[in-house]
Design a protein that fits this description.
The protein is an alpha/beta fold and about 300 residues long. It is built from nine helices and ten strands. It folds into two domains: about 180 residues, Type I PLP-dependent aspartate aminotransferase-like (Major domain) (Aspartate Aminotransferase, domain 2); about 100 residues, Aspartate Aminotransferase, domain 1 (Alpha-Beta Complex).
């Protein structure tokens, strides 16, 4: 988050344009808002599988665009942006706003499933690409509160270092020492996480099939989260509200899509944190709440 803020602060003056998508992790949007940028938002739809069309994004670019902020895989959907799409976006930036940068949040990039290949970092595509990530997701170490940003632009890199020094000065030495221990074991940690994620995804896919009367989903490409939608034919607006209320009362929480800029009947389901036994229990509760609240008007 510190990196996201510094990038927005350095590249977007008040009134400059920044382009991003919706749904989106709210804090990524907030980093643009807080510096006073004019944020243009390209909506991505559940029906289209949250796939980003470079031609659509191009229409949001202008000579005033200073930053395009994306995530791959996206949060909340887990849908990745292919390198070919990113290359098309970079071509559009070169033509419409050559001074702009493309920021790609790659926090979930290495969180592939089982033996699936890990996508290459977007930072290799151009000096105009900035990558950010953290230890929180793929490495399973959110308590360390450490992340990083990578740029091949030496001037921007110097500005980021100076910006960090003039805000937090340095990270916690204890956290950095522990982070080095994590990195020393990263291959083992990520391999174990990938297997766990594959099992969680498989169980979630089974659950969606078992409850296809009530829900539909967009299957993620990587990461620990996905988007599930309550079917409109089964859940009128009143039933959607009751679903969240009853689910919370039963001790299971999912993220309401409105928090990410999506519709309320879409929710983010996480399958990468709980043990398989706890995930099984939580999904069973979710099933019972679906059955209880379907067709309810209030």
């Amino acid at each position: 988050m510190h990196a996201l803020f510094l990038i927005a602060f350095l590249l977007c003056g008040r009134g400059d344009e920044a382009v991003t998508t919706s749904p989106l992790f709210p804090m990524a949007r907030n980093a643009l808002d807080v510096v006073g940028a004019n944020v243009r938002i390209l909506p991505l739809s559940f029906e289209q599988g949250y796939r980003l069309d470079p031609a659509d994004l191009r229409e949001y670019l202008s000579p005033s665009t200073k930053l395009v902020s994306l995530a791959s895989p996206q949060n909340p959907s887990g849908v990745a942006i292919p390198s070919s799409t990113l290359c098309e976006i970079l071509t559009g930036l070169q033509e419409r706003c050559p001074d702009a940068y493309l920021l790609v949040d790659e926090t979930y990039r290495e969180a592939a499933y089982g033996d699936d290949p890990i996508a290459r970092s977007a930072v290799s595509l151009s000096p105009k690409v900035i990558s950010v990530a953290s230890l929180s997701k793929c490495h399973g170490a959110p308590g360390l509160r450490l992340g990083w940003t990578i740029t091949r632009d030496p001037v921007l890199r110097e500005q980021l270092v100076l910006g960090k020094f003039n805000t937090v000065v340095s990270c916690s030495p204890v956290c950095e020492a522990l982070a080095l221990k994590v990195f020393a074991q990263r291959e083992r940690i990520i391999a174990e996480r990938r297997q766990s994620l594959a099992e969680g995804l498989a169980r979630t896919a089974e659950w969606v099939v078992e409850n296809q009367e009530f829900v539909e989903w967009v299957q993620p490409d990587a990461g620990a989260i996905c988007c599930v939608r309550l079917k409109p034919s089964v859940f009128p607006d009143g039933a959607v509200s009751r679903f969240y209320d009853v689910l919370a009362h039963e001790g299971v929480r999912v993220s309401n899509g409105t928090w990410f800029g999506d519709e309320a009947r879409v929710f983010r389901l996480g399958f990468g944190l709980l043990s398989m036994s706890d995930l099984h229990v939580a999904l069973n509760v979710l099933t019972e709440v679906l059955k209880q609240t379907a067709h309810a008007d209030s």
